[in-house]
Structures are given as C-alpha cells and as structure tokens.
Design a protein that fits this description.
The structure is a single chain. This protein has 123 residues and is an alpha/beta fold. The protein folds into 2 domains: 49 residues, 2,3-Dihydroxybiphenyl 1,2-Dioxygenase, domain 1 (Roll); 57 residues, Roll (2,3-Dihydroxybiphenyl 1,2-Dioxygenase, domain 1), CATH 3.10.180. It has 2 helices and 8 strands; from the N terminus they run βαββββαβββ. It is globular, with a radius of gyration of 15 Å. It starts with 8 loop residues before the first strand and ends in a 5-residue tail after the last strand.
Length: 123
Amino acid sequence: MEFLALRPVIWTEQLDETLKFYTEILGFSCDERNNDWGWASLHRDTTGIMLSKPNAHTAFTAPVFTGSFYFTVNEIWPLWEQVQNKVRVCYAPERFDWGMYEFGIYDNNGYLLQFGQEIDEIH
C-alpha cells in the first residue's frame, strides 16, 4: 500500500477571492468548480489543492489551521519576484540551517503558505 497524494482542502467563506488569489497570484489552474457545493479543485504542476466553503456540519467563523502549507519548488527566486509585492509577506527568502531557502506569505484568508527550495539545487 502507498499514499499517492495529499490534496489539502482550504476552507473559505470567500470562494471567488480565494480562487482569484491562487490562480492569478500563484499561477494555479482551476480544473473544476461547483457553485452549488461552494467548491473548486486547482492544480499547478503536480500540486493539487481544493477550495471549499465550510459545510453545514462544522462551525466555521475564520481560518483556524495552526500549521502552514509548505510547497517545495524548483525555482524560489522567480516565484518570490512574482508574488512579493502582491501579498502579505510573513518572511522574505532566507537561508536555513536545514539546507533550504524559504519564504512565507499569507493567502487572502490568512493561511500561511511557505515555499522552499533546496540550497544545493540553486545555481
């Protein structure tokens, strides 16, 4: 048995704005959207995420995720140049002792998104 993928579902009351953030700022493509469900499926390269309005069975007033979404990328600097002036920055690109260059931003809901590239891969 093997795990094949992890596709986080990001809850939001602002589906249109969140879809716009991930497609226009981060370059994801929308594969499918269902307005009746308040749901959308997106991808960029091999990374997939889903956006969803919270369902009626769960109390939701604001994002409460206590971690971050970590994206491994193969070219951190062009991505940083693309997003740095369009988002709320948590921290600018930084070299970390564990061998990664990383930066962190917040999406329109306040979720922390981190992006990292192995230092050895940077030319």
